[in-house]
Specification:
Blueprint (H helix, E strand, L loop, with lengths): L6 H16 L7 H8 L3 H13 L3 E3 L6 E3 L1 H14 L2 H15 L2 E8 L2 E8 L15 E3 L4 H8 L3 H10 L1 H7 L5 H14 L2 E4 L6 E9 L5 E10 L5 H27 L15
Antiparallel strand pairs: 1-2, 3-4, 3-8, 4-5, 6-7, 7-8
Helix pairs in contact: 1-3, 5-10, 6-9
Amino acid sequence: MDVIPGAQAVSRALCVLRAVARTRTAGVNLAQLVRDTGLNKPTVHRLLLALMAEGMVEQDAASLRYFIGRECYVLGGIASERFGLGREAADGVARLARSSGDSAFFSIRSDVFAVCVLREDGDFPLKTHVLQPGTRHPLGIGAGSLAMLASMDDTDVERCLAENAALIASSYTEFSADMLRREVAITRENGFAVSEGHVVRGSWGVAAAVHAPSGEVVGAFTIAAVESRLPKERQGVLGRQLIDEARRLETHLRKAASLQPEPKVKRSTTRAS
């Protein structure tokens, strides 16, 4: 397969942008970006300059740390309208954090990956730091990601496993394709996903997938806590709460879709001879 000209530069720029995004409001310095991306310093600096020129990244003049730029906010607002998640997903995360006392999340599907976009912490003092907005894992890695994978048909599951095989083998050594197939089967049987500390030891999670009106999986709600907070019985209780929240968001998505105007059909002006 021929490489698209410039594709590597675009891929690297997005890698840098995601690394900046993961730091949220803390920002990040150049040295940390070099470590996080695995790219050399001149390349990272060059890509940062390009992203800054487009408004995707900003640099604080005093600290020299890099932050997500205003243009990302604009694009995020457009994406929120496109996918119809927005405030409803945020309200769902807040309800889950409040009712459970633990950390709640919403992640979206990005082809063969899951990306955390929302986090809300409950009032229980001991927190898990397994996910932050911007955290990105192959589908199947982590509770929300596993819930999404299990909601796909077997053909798509195998495609995801195949496309992520090299990354999983190098960066997620506790996982294998066979293990993930077993986890998918268990998730389908239970109706919700459970991750038992495989991503971050001692940090467990429970999750339920969210579907678009078309039936395609678009995201997942997750509750994560330290292992002692998630015995078997409580997993079931939280699983049902997560499923209820997922169904609530799906109802909102269906209503939003029904209010969308019908596409206009362009009438032909050609007359028969």
